[in-house]
């Protein structure tokens, strides 16, 4: 990725429309792809957008020339994730849509996103959520970073930028079960953030009105220099052979405590040979 | 014979259960070698050797571990080339999945995560959408790279004493990189790891700040303590205990849910548990829909009574 201009930060936030987790989710059709009828902006992407907004606000705001671009790919409805991002505060949006994208696995998705980010950029910072709430593979951000040759800071629980003579440096904190780490990286970089990093804001009336004037660039594969064989089923390195809903868990026994429920629980565990 | 490379991250003093599961699975698939980004002690290497491992790969430059993910991925890709492996197995932590992800791009190879079973033709089974779908998939291009869920394969003690030979591979580290500048170890609880525990006692909003009764029951059962997001957000227990969509996914033999309503985001992390027990004051809690044994009652009386009963029976 080329060096972005020194005047302002250019931040890309990858957003995704996902089936709303509140509704039943399905895999369907002969091609075993996800049905996205009840789609929303992935909850986990809202933290990435909020992180971008806070970085811009901490370094002089839009007046300093910083710019946040919401980027997505997918069918027509995918643009809803971009629209919501513009209402919340992103400056412009990019939507890659092409029928050939259907069936892309993580490797094909990251290939398309890499070409898209390069086309729409250059960016100083690419921000993503910690995982999409549907496929849950967590692979795409790491694969995108590898394809773009970017340092990758995933699962950031805090994120700060410091300007310096040689450009911006980012500092982040990561927590694992056994240790907490501090990370430093030069920009450009790719960062995924956790749900611990901030409390995402909601769009307000002013934001919703302002969003109507913001630009969304709609691009096809040809526009970003990819051929249909490089994405979708053809460009994927894995294949789904079968998908079936898990048989629902049948409800077991429910008792109301009459003073001996703890003992009855132990009886149950003993009966299941779980003690 | 197929060559299988197992990537073992952050080696402890001896092999963890999930690592023994990985090595057992690998041994059933072909000739096993191991990639170790970090220094491992003799007891650990002896454990690796008992699975008949002849060779372990180490980076020439120890700095691969200072570079977040990309360094280990660069090393693993070189180790795959050096070993000629056709199958690569990793654990299922977020970091392992990312190392697998970047290695896949470096080797033009497909990656499948969250694998719970594997056929002879390398068709992998995983669950999607928070455990509501079972998906069978296969790598079609390059080396088969799989991250494997703990508790999915049996850890067989191989007992073939061998002293694996160390092979160093040269790794070219990425020029621009994210570096780890500090690391603070957290205190160890003495309870099993959540993702590896046979028994988990988890609490939510209904715990109302006091995890004591849950810890006591967990200790009586030799289990781990987990929590819903409501409980970790309230600061009652550390964030690493969170089970659910944005926390850990667990499938223990026994999951005891106490004071958790059971919203979809929580179910996402635990609904593949073998046996689910739920205790909640609210008879309408959705958790009861998936519980094998539900108790409508007060966890502050039910849990201590159960703990006492287990101790009384001398179990």
UniProtKB/TrEMBL annotation, chain B:
InterPro entries per record: DHS-like_NAD/FAD-binding_dom (IPR029035), ETF_a/b_N (IPR014730), ETF_a/FixB (IPR001308), ETF_asu_C (IPR014731), Rossmann-like_a/b/a_fold (IPR014729)
Record's cofactor remark: Binds 1 FAD per dimer.
Keyword annotations from UniProtKB, A to Z: FAD, Flavoprotein
Positions with a binding annotation for FAD: 205, 228-229, 242-246, 280
Gene Ontology BP terms: fatty acid beta-oxidation using acyl-CoA dehydrogenase
Cofactor(s) required for function per UniProt: FAD
One family name in Pfam for this protein: ETF
One MF term in the entry's GO annotations: electron transfer activity
Superkingdom of origin organism: Bacteria
Electron transfer flavoprotein alpha/beta-subunit N-terminal domain mapped to chain residues: 4-184
Family membership noted in the UniProt record: Belongs to the ETF alpha-subunit/FixB family.
Subunit-structure text: Heterodimer of an alpha and a beta subunit.
Function: The electron transfer flavoprotein serves as a specific electron acceptor for other dehydrogenases. It transfers the electrons to the main respiratory chain via ETF-ubiquinone oxidoreductase (ETF dehydrogenase).
UniProt protein name: Electron transfer flavoprotein subunit alpha
Record lineage: Bacteria, Bacillati, Actinomycetota, Actinomycetes, Micrococcales
């Amino acid at each position: 990725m080329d060096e972005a201009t020194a005047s302002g930060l250019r931040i890309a936030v990858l957003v995704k429309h996902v089936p709303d987790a509140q509704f039943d989710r399905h895999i369907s059709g002969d091609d075993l792809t996800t049905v996205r009828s009840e789609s929303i902006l992935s909850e986990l992407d809202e933290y990435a957008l909020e992180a971008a907004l806070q970085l811009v606000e901490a370094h002089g705001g839009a007046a300093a020339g910083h710019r946040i671009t919401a980027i997505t790919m997918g069918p027509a409805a995918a643009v809803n994730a971009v629209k919501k991002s513009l209402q919340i505060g992103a400056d412009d949006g990019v939507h890659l849509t092409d029928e050939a994208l259907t069936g892309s696995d993580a490797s094909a998705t990251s290939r398309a996103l890499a070409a898209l980010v390069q086309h729409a950029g250059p960016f100083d910072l690419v921000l993503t959520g910690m995982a999409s709430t549907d496929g849950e593979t967590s692979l795409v951000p790491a694969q995108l970073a590898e394809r773009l040759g970017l340092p990758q800071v995933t699962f950031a629980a805090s994120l700060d930028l410091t300007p310096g003579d040689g450009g911006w440096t980012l500092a982040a904190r990561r927590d694992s079960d056994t240790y907490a780490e501090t990370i430093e990286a030069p920009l450009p970089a790719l960062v995924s953030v956790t749900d611990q990093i901030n409390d995402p804001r909601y769009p307000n009336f002013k934001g919703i009105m302002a969003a109507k004037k913001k630009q969304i660039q709609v691009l096809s594969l040809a526009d970003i220099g990819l051929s249909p064989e490089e994405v979708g089923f053809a460009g994927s390195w894995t294949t789904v052979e079968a998908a079936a809903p898990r048989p629902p868990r049948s409800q077991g026994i429910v008792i109301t405590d009459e003073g001996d429920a703890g003992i009855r629980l132990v009886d149950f565990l003993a009966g299941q040979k779980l003690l | 014979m197929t060559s299988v490379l197992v990537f073992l991250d952050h080696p402890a003093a001896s092999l963890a259960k999930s690592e023994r599961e990985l090595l057992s699975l690998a041994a059933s698939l072909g000739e096993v070698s191991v990639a170790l980004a970090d220094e491992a002690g003799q007891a650990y290497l002896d454990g690796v050797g008992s699975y008949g491992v002849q060779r372990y790969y180490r980076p020439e430059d120890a700095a691969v571990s200072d570079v977040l993910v990309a360094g280990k991925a660069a090393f693993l890709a070189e180790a795959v080339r050096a070993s000629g492996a056709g199958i690569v197995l990793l654990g299922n932590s977020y970091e392992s999945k990312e190392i697998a992800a970047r290695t896949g791009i470096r080797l033009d190879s497909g990656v499948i995560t969250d694998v719970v079973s594997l056929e002879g033709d390398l068709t992998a089974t995983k669950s999607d959408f928070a455990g509501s779908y079972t998906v069978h998939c296969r790598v079609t291009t390059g080396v088969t790279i799989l991250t494997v869920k703990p508790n999915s394969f049996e850890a067989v003690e191989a007992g073939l004493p061998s002293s694996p030979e160390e092979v160093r591979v040269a790794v070219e580290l990425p020029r621009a990189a994210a570096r780890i500048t500090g690391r603070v170890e957290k205190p160890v609880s003495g309870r099993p790891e959540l993702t590896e525990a046979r028994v988990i006692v988890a609490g939510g909003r209904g715990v109302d700040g006091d995890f004591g009764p849950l810890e006591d029951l967990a200790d009586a059962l030799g289990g781990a303590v987990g929590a819903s997001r409501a409980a970790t957000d309230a600061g009652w227990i550390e964030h690493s205990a969170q089970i659910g969509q944005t926390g850990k996914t667990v499938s223990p033999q026994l999951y005891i849910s106490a004071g958790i309503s059971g919203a979809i985001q929580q179910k996402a992390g635990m609904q593949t548990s073998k046996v689910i027990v739920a205790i909640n004051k609210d008879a309408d809690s959705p958790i009861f829909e998936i519980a094998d044994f539900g108790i409508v009652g007060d966890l502050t009386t039910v849990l201590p009574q159960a703990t006492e009963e287990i101790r009384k029976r001398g179990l």
